[in-house]
Amino acid sequence: MHTFDLSLEHVTKVEGAANVNVKVKDGKVESVRYEIAEFKRFYTRGIEGKPLMAIPQLLARICGTCSNAHLLCAIEACEHALDLQPTPQTMLLRELTMCGLNIRDHALHLYLFVLPDIVGKDALLEFDENDPVQHQMLHDAFDIKAAGNFLAELVAGRSVHAVYPTLGGFLKFPDKAGVEKAIKLLESVRPAVLRTVEIFEKAPFHLDRKTNYMALVPKDHFGFIDGEIHDSFGHVVPESGFRDHLEHVVLPYSQASAYKHEGKSYMVGSLARLNLAKDLLHAKTKESLKETLKLFPSTDIFYNNLAQAIEILHCLDRAVDVLKTVEFKAEPLVRMPNKAGVGIGVVEAPRGTLYHRVETDEKGNVVRGEVIVPTNQNQVNIEEDVWKLIQDNLDKMSQEEMIHEMEKLVRAYDPCMSCAAHFLKLKWEE
């Protein structure tokens, strides 16, 4: 009968440091603690007193990789506070911005942080350029990422910390030459994306555990910036009602707030989006992945990686469709006078549902703000998955094997860039 304490110390994250502590007594897991140790950076206090126009760029600095998701979420919240309605062209440009973000960000996670486990390497740098299979993987990784980067740069000005999106519209618009180049790049990497889907469909890692899945789901298309909040049990909540839908949970051992729904954990991210809205994917994506999509809905956390690969293909197909059929023209920003109000922004960031909320005074200055990121929402669910992993494998794996499996499990959530690396240090006490 196993009895030990398992400690994962200094798990580095974009939001700070984190630890994981597991206690096993007499062959039973007694507790799992996913401890985010340095999460608080007081962004929501830092925006108090600032004018609405400054808020999106300030809040975009929360994250160094999915900053464009924070940017668009903050813009939406600020616009709602002003009752400002963006134009249809602006919404399309924002959708393309999110497509570029997901293509680049998902590719980065899948190839640089997950793929080494599949091929038995410690890092992408260890891949052999002289091996035809590994050579193809390397070039697919950089080609897909480059296509996503170019799309984001064309539409939003930068792939990280974009400069064109702002309240009421965009400051610059795609030119014809850039659009033609983006179409060519995106179409050229489609075979690479299909290879990516195949790789992660065949990945040998699995952990099934039933949980609730939650995501922002549009009415008539698969997207990331509008819709209503859905979950696996049929709950549907408007964006404005998110705060009544989520239950704030104080974890005394963690600096980060956690969240539950009706007293239970839930998961956000690509797996949640595919589970809830796979039928809304782009028609070309569904045609190419008929058999693969039969795997969803799924309760296998490792299919979050596969879901990301599928989303890359959807974003590529959707972006090409828009770029080929829409002629973008310069248009003035939509302006509204400052007023006191409350604004809600909800978008699907690469790692899951992101919420921003701002309250303003009559001068248009922020008096209160709130940000809920995907990592907060997945925190309890990660603990429960780690619990199951340890309990199911106490008599099946060596300590070294268990360490590696826990690393892969945390990486499957893609909680942020740095934590997706090979980061876990374990100290066993028996």
Shape: globular
Helix content: 40-55%
Distance N terminus to C terminus? 11 Å
Provide the number of structural domains. Answer: 1
Mean pLDDT: 89
Low-confidence stretches: 10-16, 417-430
Proportion of residues in β-strands: 15-25%
- Topology-level CATH name: Cytochrome-c3 Hydrogenase, chain B
Strand order across the largest sheet: 3-2-1-15
Helix/strand/pairing category: alpha+beta
Q: At the fourth CATH level, what is the homologous superfamily?
A: Cytochrome-c3 Hydrogenase, chain B
Major sheet size, sense and barrel closure: 4 strands, antiparallel
- Strand element count: 15
Q: Could you write a compact summary of the structure shown?
A:
This protein is α+β, with helices and mostly antiparallel strands and 430 residues long. The chain is built from 13 helices and 15 strands.
Question: Could you describe the 3D structure shown?
Answer:
With 430 residues, the protein is α+β, with helices and mostly antiparallel strands. It has a single domain, classed as Cytochrome-c3 Hydrogenase, chain B (Orthogonal Bundle). Helices cover 42% and strands 19% of the residues. It is built from 13 helices and 15 strands. The strands form five sheets. Strands 3-2-1-15 form a four-stranded antiparallel sheet, covered by helices on one side. It has a four-stranded mixed sheet with strand order 8-7-6-11. The longest helix is centred in the first third of the chain and has 31 residues, at 88-118. The model is unreliable at 10-16 and 417-430 (pLDDT under 50).
